[in-house]
User: Fold this.
Amino acid sequence: MSYDLAVWHTNHRLTNEEAIKLYHQLCDSVITGVEPHPGIEAFYIELTSMHPEIDDVPEDRIDDMDYCPWSIAFDHSPGHVIVSCVWPKADYVDGLIRILARKHGLDVFDPQTGTLSDPDS
Assistant:
């Protein structure tokens, strides 16, 4: 089991219900609901400079959750990033993702609770 978060950019604010639908579309590889945004790439680069994607982790560090808290590879497009982390790192990752998303002007969706946070909240 993993703890998941989605970070994205849209041209308008979404309700929680709209965000749930968008998240499911993204999980089905339908990215038409998000807009490419330079903040997504900046967010991705900053995040992976701190914690590389699981496919980029050296074999001798694969079990080091402090180095790589991810449970699977990211789902990533020019308009979104979905991350999945191991449960023991959920609180840390949640805080980190929210800080970086706010810094880059991006929304954060928590599929566990069905709530969307915009960068101003």
Strands lie at 2-8, 75-77, 80-86, 107-110, 115-117. The longest helix spans residues 90-103. The longest strand covers residues 2-8.
